Request: fold
Amino acid sequence: MKHNIQVHPTKNPRLPNVDVNNVPFGKAYSDHMFMAEFKDGAWQDPRIVPFGDLSLSPANLALHYGQSIFEGMKASKDAEGTPLLFRMDAHITRLNNSAKRMDMPEFPAELFYEAIRQLVNIDHGWIPDSPSSLYIRPLMFALDPYIGVRSSTTYQFLIFTGPVSSYYTKPVKLITAQHFIRAAKGGVGAAKTAGNYAATLYPMKLAYEQGYDQIMWMSPDFKYIQECGTMNLFFVIGDTIITPANSNKTILGGITKDCFLTILRDAGHKVEERDLSIDEVVNAYHKGELKDVFGSGTAAVVAAISEITYKDLTMVIPPLETRKTSIFLKEELTAIRAGERPDKFNWIEKLKVKKHVTT
Ligand SMILES: *Cc1c(COP(=O)(O)O)cnc(C)c1O
Reply:
């Protein structure tokens, strides 16, 4: 399928003045972005333009009522400098699932993928050396200026990118939620939608003030573990690797989590995706069977959890160097993403860099 994406290259590229291997996290944006608008029942005018500010009506529905969704994925470079796109199809599907839940139009998958290819192609000079990578941020939001609560009839779709460093995270201290919840059955916890993150900011501030890095979100009865921050969680109890199931659609279904489940099962590990109670984790801890706890997500890949506080108990997780599972997963997935392993799960698309044709 051929899509007619108009390309308007910037006349003032910033790339020559940027060291892409040395930028602060989330603060550098590549020279171009992709845009399209939904109007009269269809997506219109797909185009690549210079990265820049938007102009919005103060009555914009998204600003008031939060009809807004996003994604986050990465492109990296292999040893030859070929751009590698990682699991774009899974991210495209997930954005469209978020769209459905928020009563927004889906973005055609083929056009979405082609937009990513062309955008990464035109800005391939912004991809840092592995293990750093180019972060890709698609988003969609309501565009109607209207002050009543209803679904918008027009939408903005955008993709922009920016280099991110390999993100060394210091081990994370978690506090188990006791008052606030992130998501409940029937809600929007499984959608990557703006309000989910806004709702966590105040509880997170209270957690920081008490010396914790992240909140471990729990089911509304505070018995079952959901996830933390923008990461899914894995627990190694004895020789079994357990991650909370998403049966109530309260957890954001991570693509990194899916990668880890796939890699672990393929390597013959004992893996369970099921409901996991805090009581079970506390019991395992007291018996000395809690070997490893880590978060999974696109940004950090693996984030080691150093401590989990639950009521009066602080569970100290064993030293990092003993954590076979998280060390193995971080190495494997980083190597797969950098094209240093055979792509046996079909997760990589190698991008053939083309000189763009000005249209
Ligand atoms: C994005 C996200 C994740 C991780 O998803 P990945 O696809 O692995 O990056 C986990 N939890 C929340 C709440 C998220 O927004």
